[in-house]
Amino acid sequence: MTDSLLATEPQLRLIVFLGVLVAMAIWELAAPRRRQEIPRVIRWTNNLGLVVIDTIVLRLSFPVLAVGLAVLAQDRGWGLFNVIEMPGWVAVLVSIIVLDLVIYLQHVMFHAVPALWRLHRMHHADLEFDVTTGLRFHPVEILLSMGIKLAVVMALGPPAVAVLIFEVLLNATAMFNHSNVRMPRIADRVLRLIVVTPDMHRVHHSIRPEETNSNFGFNFPWWDRLLGTYKTQPKAGHEAMSIGIEQFRTTRDLWLDRMLIQPVKGPASGYPINRETRKKS
Ligand SMILES: [Zn+2]
Ligand SMILES: [Zn+2]
Q1: CB 238 within 8 A of CB 34
Q2: Ligand number nearest to the C-alpha of 218
Q3: In this structure, is residue 194 part of a structural domain?
Q4: How many domains does the chain fold into?
Protein backbone atom coordinates (compact mmCIF):
# COMPACT_ATOMS: atom_id res chain seq x y z
CA MET A 1 0.00 0.00 0.00
CA THR A 2 2.71 2.48 1.02
CA ASP A 3 4.88 1.46 -1.93
CA SER A 4 2.09 2.10 -4.42
CA LEU A 5 1.43 5.41 -2.66
CA LEU A 6 5.01 6.51 -3.26
CA ALA A 7 4.88 5.27 -6.86
CA THR A 8 1.74 7.25 -7.70
CA GLU A 9 2.72 10.41 -5.78
CA PRO A 10 4.51 12.25 -8.65
CA GLN A 11 1.73 11.60 -11.20
CA LEU A 12 -1.02 12.49 -8.74
CA ARG A 13 0.70 15.74 -7.77
CA LEU A 14 1.31 16.71 -11.39
CA ILE A 15 -2.27 15.95 -12.47
CA VAL A 16 -3.79 17.96 -9.60
CA PHE A 17 -1.30 20.80 -10.12
CA LEU A 18 -1.99 21.12 -13.86
CA GLY A 19 -5.73 20.52 -13.45
CA VAL A 20 -6.19 23.23 -10.82
CA LEU A 21 -3.84 25.65 -12.64
CA VAL A 22 -5.78 25.33 -15.91
CA ALA A 23 -9.20 25.44 -14.18
CA MET A 24 -8.32 28.58 -12.22
CA ALA A 25 -6.75 30.24 -15.28
CA ILE A 26 -9.97 29.68 -17.25
CA TRP A 27 -12.06 31.00 -14.33
CA GLU A 28 -9.79 34.08 -14.12
CA LEU A 29 -10.33 34.81 -17.81
CA ALA A 30 -14.09 34.23 -17.62
CA ALA A 31 -14.78 36.14 -14.38
CA PRO A 32 -11.84 38.25 -13.13
CA ARG A 33 -12.10 39.94 -9.71
CA ARG A 34 -9.66 42.78 -10.48
CA ARG A 35 -8.41 44.36 -13.70
CA GLN A 36 -4.79 43.31 -14.26
CA GLU A 37 -2.40 46.01 -15.51
CA ILE A 38 0.78 43.95 -15.95
CA PRO A 39 0.90 41.67 -19.03
CA ARG A 40 0.30 38.10 -17.96
CA VAL A 41 3.18 36.84 -20.09
CA ILE A 42 5.81 38.56 -17.87
CA ARG A 43 4.46 37.33 -14.56
CA TRP A 44 3.41 33.88 -15.67
CA THR A 45 6.70 32.94 -17.33
CA ASN A 46 8.73 34.15 -14.35
CA ASN A 47 6.43 32.75 -11.64
CA LEU A 48 6.18 29.37 -13.39
CA GLY A 49 9.95 29.41 -14.05
CA LEU A 50 10.39 29.75 -10.30
CA VAL A 51 8.24 26.63 -9.75
CA VAL A 52 10.68 24.65 -11.92
CA ILE A 53 13.67 25.98 -9.95
CA ASP A 54 11.94 25.29 -6.59
CA THR A 55 11.12 21.71 -7.62
CA ILE A 56 14.68 20.96 -8.76
CA VAL A 57 16.29 22.55 -5.66
CA LEU A 58 13.93 20.63 -3.37
CA ARG A 59 14.57 17.28 -5.06
CA LEU A 60 18.34 17.79 -4.99
CA SER A 61 18.48 18.99 -1.39
CA PHE A 62 16.61 16.28 0.49
CA PRO A 63 17.15 12.52 0.17
CA VAL A 64 13.55 12.01 1.23
CA LEU A 65 10.53 14.33 1.21
CA ALA A 66 7.52 14.47 3.55
CA VAL A 67 5.50 11.52 2.18
CA GLY A 68 8.62 9.34 1.90
CA LEU A 69 9.61 10.13 5.47
CA ALA A 70 6.10 9.27 6.71
CA VAL A 71 6.43 5.85 5.03
CA LEU A 72 9.82 5.37 6.69
CA ALA A 73 8.45 6.46 10.08
CA GLN A 74 5.57 4.00 9.73
CA ASP A 75 8.00 1.16 8.96
CA ARG A 76 10.31 2.00 11.84
CA GLY A 77 7.63 2.95 14.39
CA TRP A 78 8.80 6.57 14.74
CA GLY A 79 6.52 9.32 16.00
CA LEU A 80 3.45 9.60 18.21
CA PHE A 81 0.84 8.05 15.92
CA ASN A 82 3.03 5.01 15.24
CA VAL A 83 3.23 4.34 18.97
CA ILE A 84 -0.32 4.94 20.18
CA GLU A 85 -3.33 2.98 18.91
CA MET A 86 -6.14 4.87 17.21
CA PRO A 87 -8.52 4.35 14.27
CA GLY A 88 -6.83 5.08 10.95
CA TRP A 89 -9.29 7.75 9.87
CA VAL A 90 -8.83 9.67 13.14
CA ALA A 91 -5.06 9.64 12.63
CA VAL A 92 -5.52 10.90 9.04
CA LEU A 93 -7.88 13.70 10.07
CA VAL A 94 -5.85 14.83 13.08
CA SER A 95 -2.61 14.73 11.03
CA ILE A 96 -4.06 16.96 8.30
CA ILE A 97 -5.34 19.46 10.87
CA VAL A 98 -2.05 19.50 12.83
CA LEU A 99 0.00 19.94 9.64
CA ASP A 100 -2.24 22.85 8.63
CA LEU A 101 -1.79 24.51 12.03
CA VAL A 102 1.99 24.12 11.69
CA ILE A 103 1.92 25.75 8.24
CA TYR A 104 -0.15 28.62 9.69
CA LEU A 105 2.34 29.12 12.56
CA GLN A 106 5.27 28.88 10.17
CA HIS A 107 3.68 31.58 8.02
CA VAL A 108 3.29 33.88 11.06
CA MET A 109 6.95 33.20 11.95
CA PHE A 110 8.09 34.14 8.42
CA HIS A 111 6.36 37.48 8.89
CA ALA A 112 7.65 38.06 12.43
CA VAL A 113 11.39 37.37 12.12
CA PRO A 114 13.16 39.97 9.93
CA ALA A 115 15.59 37.50 8.29
CA LEU A 116 12.73 35.14 7.42
CA TRP A 117 10.60 38.03 6.20
CA ARG A 118 13.39 38.79 3.69
CA LEU A 119 12.72 35.36 2.15
CA HIS A 120 8.95 35.42 2.42
CA ARG A 121 8.48 39.00 1.21
CA MET A 122 9.27 37.77 -2.30
CA HIS A 123 5.89 36.03 -2.23
CA HIS A 124 4.32 39.36 -1.28
CA ALA A 125 6.25 41.41 -3.85
CA ASP A 126 4.09 40.13 -6.73
CA LEU A 127 2.33 43.22 -8.06
CA GLU A 128 -0.77 41.32 -9.11
CA PHE A 129 -2.66 38.57 -7.33
CA ASP A 130 -3.54 35.54 -9.41
CA VAL A 131 -3.18 31.76 -9.54
CA THR A 132 0.58 31.94 -10.22
CA THR A 133 1.12 34.13 -7.12
CA GLY A 134 0.20 31.05 -5.12
CA LEU A 135 3.25 29.28 -6.54
CA ARG A 136 5.71 32.13 -6.06
CA PHE A 137 8.00 31.25 -3.14
CA HIS A 138 11.75 31.71 -2.78
CA PRO A 139 13.63 28.37 -3.03
CA VAL A 140 15.22 28.91 0.39
CA GLU A 141 11.76 29.39 1.92
CA ILE A 142 10.68 26.16 0.23
CA LEU A 143 13.68 24.34 1.76
CA LEU A 144 13.06 25.72 5.28
CA SER A 145 9.39 24.89 4.98
CA MET A 146 10.21 21.30 3.98
CA GLY A 147 12.65 21.02 6.92
CA ILE A 148 9.88 22.05 9.32
CA LYS A 149 7.43 19.62 7.70
CA LEU A 150 9.95 16.76 7.97
CA ALA A 151 10.47 17.52 11.68
CA VAL A 152 6.71 17.43 12.26
CA VAL A 153 6.40 14.14 10.36
CA MET A 154 9.18 12.64 12.51
CA ALA A 155 7.53 13.76 15.75
CA LEU A 156 3.92 13.04 14.83
CA GLY A 157 4.33 9.88 12.76
CA PRO A 158 1.26 10.66 10.60
CA PRO A 159 -0.13 8.07 8.15
CA ALA A 160 1.70 8.57 4.82
CA VAL A 161 -1.63 8.95 3.04
CA ALA A 162 -2.48 11.90 5.33
CA VAL A 163 0.76 13.65 4.35
CA LEU A 164 0.04 13.02 0.68
CA ILE A 165 -3.53 14.35 0.99
CA PHE A 166 -2.23 17.38 2.89
CA GLU A 167 0.45 18.22 0.33
CA VAL A 168 -1.86 17.84 -2.66
CA LEU A 169 -4.57 19.82 -0.85
CA LEU A 170 -2.17 22.62 0.09
CA ASN A 171 -0.94 22.93 -3.47
CA ALA A 172 -4.51 23.04 -4.80
CA THR A 173 -5.87 25.48 -2.20
CA ALA A 174 -2.84 27.78 -2.59
CA MET A 175 -3.65 28.12 -6.31
CA PHE A 176 -7.37 28.52 -5.59
CA ASN A 177 -7.05 31.14 -2.86
CA HIS A 178 -4.57 33.30 -4.81
CA SER A 179 -6.65 33.36 -7.95
CA ASN A 180 -8.13 36.51 -9.43
CA VAL A 181 -11.65 35.13 -9.61
CA ARG A 182 -15.02 36.67 -8.97
CA MET A 183 -17.65 34.63 -7.17
CA PRO A 184 -21.00 35.54 -5.66
CA ARG A 185 -20.61 37.12 -2.20
CA ILE A 186 -22.78 34.43 -0.63
CA ALA A 187 -20.57 31.69 -2.10
CA ASP A 188 -17.51 33.39 -0.62
CA ARG A 189 -19.21 33.66 2.78
CA VAL A 190 -20.18 29.98 2.85
CA LEU A 191 -16.83 28.74 1.49
CA ARG A 192 -14.95 30.82 4.08
CA LEU A 193 -16.34 28.59 6.79
CA ILE A 194 -14.28 25.65 5.55
CA VAL A 195 -11.55 26.93 3.23
CA VAL A 196 -9.53 30.11 2.69
CA THR A 197 -11.11 31.93 -0.27
CA PRO A 198 -9.41 34.32 -2.74
CA ASP A 199 -11.16 37.34 -1.15
CA MET A 200 -9.90 36.23 2.28
CA HIS A 201 -6.29 35.70 1.21
CA ARG A 202 -6.15 38.83 -0.99
CA VAL A 203 -6.30 40.88 2.23
CA HIS A 204 -2.95 39.28 3.13
CA HIS A 205 -1.42 40.65 -0.10
CA SER A 206 -2.43 44.26 0.65
CA ILE A 207 0.37 46.84 0.78
CA ARG A 208 -0.92 48.01 4.19
CA PRO A 209 1.14 46.30 6.95
CA GLU A 210 -1.84 45.73 9.24
CA GLU A 211 -3.58 43.86 6.41
CA THR A 212 -0.43 41.98 5.31
CA ASN A 213 -0.20 40.76 8.90
CA SER A 214 -3.60 39.12 8.86
CA ASN A 215 -5.20 36.06 7.23
CA PHE A 216 -2.16 33.77 7.41
CA GLY A 217 -4.14 30.57 6.73
CA PHE A 218 -3.67 28.58 3.50
CA ASN A 219 -6.10 25.68 3.78
CA PHE A 220 -8.42 26.07 6.74
CA PRO A 221 -9.67 29.53 7.72
CA TRP A 222 -10.14 28.63 11.39
CA TRP A 223 -6.66 29.46 12.76
CA ASP A 224 -6.95 33.14 11.86
CA ARG A 225 -10.33 33.40 13.54
CA LEU A 226 -9.27 31.41 16.62
CA LEU A 227 -5.92 33.11 17.09
CA GLY A 228 -6.96 36.69 16.37
CA THR A 229 -5.36 37.37 12.97
CA TYR A 230 -8.54 37.48 10.91
CA LYS A 231 -9.56 40.48 8.76
CA THR A 232 -12.76 40.15 6.76
CA GLN A 233 -12.11 42.61 3.91
CA PRO A 234 -9.41 45.09 2.81
CA LYS A 235 -10.05 48.70 3.87
CA ALA A 236 -9.77 50.06 0.32
CA GLY A 237 -12.00 47.35 -1.17
CA HIS A 238 -10.86 44.48 -3.39
CA GLU A 239 -10.80 46.48 -6.60
CA ALA A 240 -9.08 49.64 -5.31
CA MET A 241 -6.59 48.08 -2.88
CA SER A 242 -2.86 48.07 -3.74
CA ILE A 243 -1.26 44.65 -4.03
CA GLY A 244 2.36 44.02 -3.02
CA ILE A 245 4.79 45.55 -0.55
CA GLU A 246 6.42 48.98 -0.45
CA GLN A 247 9.71 47.66 -1.90
CA PHE A 248 10.18 46.14 -5.37
CA ARG A 249 7.44 47.90 -7.29
CA THR A 250 8.77 47.93 -10.86
CA THR A 251 7.94 45.45 -13.62
CA ARG A 252 11.64 44.52 -13.74
CA ASP A 253 11.34 43.31 -10.12
CA LEU A 254 8.97 40.59 -11.36
CA TRP A 255 11.73 38.88 -13.34
CA LEU A 256 13.16 35.63 -12.06
CA ASP A 257 16.73 36.88 -11.53
CA ARG A 258 15.52 39.85 -9.48
CA MET A 259 13.15 37.68 -7.46
CA LEU A 260 15.96 35.32 -6.48
CA ILE A 261 18.17 38.12 -5.11
CA GLN A 262 15.36 40.02 -3.35
CA PRO A 263 16.21 38.53 0.10
CA VAL A 264 19.59 40.29 0.13
CA LYS A 265 18.43 43.55 -1.41
CA GLY A 266 17.69 46.59 0.74
CA PRO A 267 16.64 46.59 4.37
CA ALA A 268 14.23 44.06 5.86
CA SER A 269 12.08 47.09 6.55
CA GLY A 270 8.43 47.44 6.46
CA TYR A 271 6.52 44.78 8.17
CA PRO A 272 6.21 43.09 11.64
CA ILE A 273 8.90 43.06 14.35
CA ASN A 274 10.98 45.91 13.02
CA ARG A 275 8.01 48.07 12.17
CA GLU A 276 9.33 50.66 14.64
CA THR A 277 12.48 51.15 12.56
CA ARG A 278 10.26 51.82 9.60
CA LYS A 279 8.34 54.51 11.45
CA LYS A 280 11.57 56.26 12.47
CA SER A 281 13.06 56.30 8.97
ZN1 LIG B 1 2.66 36.00 3.97
ZN1 LIG C 1 -0.17 34.51 -0.49
Answers
A1: yes
A2: 2
A3: no
A4: 1
In a domain, 216, yes or no: no
Ligand 2 centroid vs 123 CA: distance in angstroms?
6
- Shortest-distance ligand to the CA of residue 112: 1
pLDDT tens-digit profile of 90-115?
A: 999 999 999 999 999 999 999 999 99
Residue pair 268/118 in contact (Cβ under 8 Å)? The answer is: yes
Mean pLDDT across the stretch 45-59?
97
Closest ligand to C-alpha of residue 196 is: 2
Share of the chain above pLDDT 90, in %: 90
Distance 70 CA to ligand 1 centre (A): 27
Average pLDDT over residues 198-221: 96
Q: pLDDT digits over 160-182, tens only?
A: 999 999 999 999 999 999 999 99
Alpha-carbon distance of 192 to 7, in angstroms, equals 34
Dist CA 235 CA 248 (whole Å): 22
Q: Give the ligand with the smallest distance to the CA of 119.
A: 1
Task: State the distance from the centre of ligand 2 to the C-alpha of 10, rounded, in angstroms.
Answer: 24
Residue span of the structural domain in which 28 resides = 2-181+248-276
Whether 113 maps to a domain, the answer reads yes
Q: Which ligand is nearest to the CA of 243?
A: 2
Question: 54 vs 16, 57, 141, 193, 206, CA distance in Å?
Answer: 18, 5, 9, 31, 25
> How far apart are the CA of 3 and the centre of ligand 2, in A?
33
What is the spatial distance between Cα 45 and Cα 274, in angstroms, rounded to a whole number?
33
